[in-house]
Write a structure and sequence with these properties.
Elements (H helix, E strand, L loop, with lengths): L1 H18 E3 L6 E3 L4 H22 L33
Antiparallel strand pairs: 1-2
Length: about 90
């Protein structure tokens, strides 16, 4: 019985370290309890539920594709004057 009290925490600690992996970009350790595919599926499910809730409250809510090309146009109407040293409040 005495050996079980020592052996079980060591086994649990070893399993925890076994499931820890290093993230290649940051080099930090991370514990994965579920697979990436399951996490991806859960995130899409939660996003769709959130989107449906938003659309019931506000009918004009739209969704799109992340990272898609967005048509943004910059309009430069002319020079801008910035007062850097002024004692007068505008």
């Amino acid at each position: 019985m005495k050996y079980l009290k020592i052996f079980i925490p060591i086994i649990l600690l070893a399993i925890t370290f076994y499931y820890c992996s290093t993230v290649p970009i940051t080099g930090r350790s991370q514990l994965h309890l579920i697979s990436s595919a399951d996490l991806n599926a859960l995130s899409f499910q939660q996003y769709n539920e959130f989107l449906a809730l938003c659309k019931t409250r506000h009918p004009l809510v739209q969704s799109g594709v992340f990272g898609a090309l967005m048509g943004v146009r910059l309009l430069n109407d002319g020079p801008v004057t910035i007062l850097l040293d002024s004692r007068r409040l505008f």
